[in-house]
# Entry
Amino acid sequence: MALYGIYGRHEIDACPINNSKNRKMMTDIGHRDMKEVAPKYKINKIIGRFHSALEHTFLWIVDAEDPHLIQQLAIDGGVASFNEVKIVPLIEFENVVKMLEKMDN
Ligand SMILES: [Zn+2]
# Structure
């Protein structure tokens, strides 16, 4: 299991609330069956998909095999066409504590 946070943000005028092209893209993604799409990009599980509408940001958390394939999904799906996208490896807090306890001093 490897967790990644997919952090995105866009400008207000590109927001799907204000931009009909991007609105259609997002509603199409929303109706897409991710169970069919995910294996192609080696995404084992979508943990959560969270959006802050008026901050124009989002955070998706996925369990995936390869961050380069997450990048490819963001490009292929169109998300990267109007969002800055950061793909960040994540670990759970319990594992942070374990890692810290193994450190010297
Ligand atoms: Zn927005």
The radius of gyration is 16 Å. Residues 10, 15, 17, 56 surround zinc ion (CB under 6 Å). The mean pLDDT is 96.
